[in-house]
Specification:
Blueprint: E1 2-6, H1 12-19, E2 27-32, E3 44-48, H2 54-64, E4 68-71, H3 78-88, E5 92-94, E6 100-101, E7 111-112, H4 119-124, E8 128-130, H5 139-148, E9 153-164, H6 176-183, E10 188-191, E11 194-197, E12 205-209, E13 214-220, H7 229-232, E14 237-244, H8 247-255, E15 264-266, E16 269-271, H9 273-280, E17 296-307, E18 310-319, H10 323-327, H11 337-350, E19 358-360, H12 367-376, E20 383-387
Parallel strand pairs: 1-2, 1-4, 2-3, 4-5, 5-8, 8-19, 9-14
Antiparallel strand pairs: 6-7, 9-17, 10-11, 10-14, 12-13, 13-14, 15-16, 17-18, 18-20
Helix pairs in contact: 1-11, 2-3, 5-12, 6-9
Amino acid sequence: MKVVIAGYGAVGSVLAKLLVKDKSIESIHCLDLKFSERPDSKKIIFKVFNILEKDKLINYLKELKPDVAVNVLHPKFNANILECCAEAGVNYLDTASFWDIDLRPNAKVPYKMEQLDFNEKFTANNILGLIEAGVAPGLDNLMAAECASHLDYVEEIKIRMVEDTGSKKLFFSWSKEWLLDELATKPIIYENGKFKFVENFGGEEDYNFPAPIGRRKTYYFAQDEVGSIPFYIKTRKTDVKIYDNNIKVFKLLSSLGVTSNKPIKVGEAEVKPVDVLARLLPDPEPGEEMNFPEAVFAMAVEAIGMKRGKKKSVKFSVVFPNQKTIQRLNLDANFISYPTALSAALFALAIPKINKTGVFPPEAIPKEIRHSILRQLPKFHIKTHKNF
């Protein structure tokens, strides 16, 4: 396989180091505006590139003819790269949507998943775009599809997450801008055939995660999964709640209004409070994750419904390795970038096996591919717990 990676940051760098270990990989071509290190393998090629130069990107993709272009840049670049991949006839993969408010009267969901606008182009060009294919969204969507497949009727899909640094100190696992954007965005839930907004940090629920996590208080949080799952899995209700050990800090920032993305007048200028906060908060220091050896990320997906006329709950949970374990892998990864990059790597390696065209999320990929990806998780220091 030839793979292009757009963005060589906290996720892209780890993704390249994971992919290069697979025997199917011929070469990995990493594109970014600058590089602060040298490739540690002859299969990894760095190329300084401005992704916004569409004609150059299209010509580059046409000449290289990669099996997939993986976009791990900020989602605001999704549409640009999708357009270039469609024009060049190259398969595409990303890890999140930009999620702008959709004001169209016929909008099916309050937030617009911009990638789906390219479905017809990708289908016409006989290529596929696997969107939201990181860890969350991504792997949890896949887990939702697996849980739902064990029921005759799905009443509810619960997605619950834990992000715990084991410290009171605020730590941005890769991008403070990304986190602040999530804090500025109202979550949605799906219920009785409709999407609706809920308040961030509402819906408090004690949820039991597998050991060593245990019972944690979870809250509504803005996540992409709710925006896609109801279109591919028939269910009455879907929501996402998280536990974060810094939740009190996030609640305080939100209550003060400093995470708002609504512009306010300052003299003659307009300023978004969240942009000011992003500038004031410190950037993560290189290697800072080593100060949080017990930091861990975990997910549980539960489908509740009916099986052979009886009510049944089906649950799939994953606990990723803690920071101390990840450190030993020599990937320069943290407890969030490793799960994200690993999930993207597994999805990327599956691209040649997916006999399907168009743009779609992980819950829509064929059953046999889904099973293949989920079976591989324990090989990567991931503890899986299944209650089927």
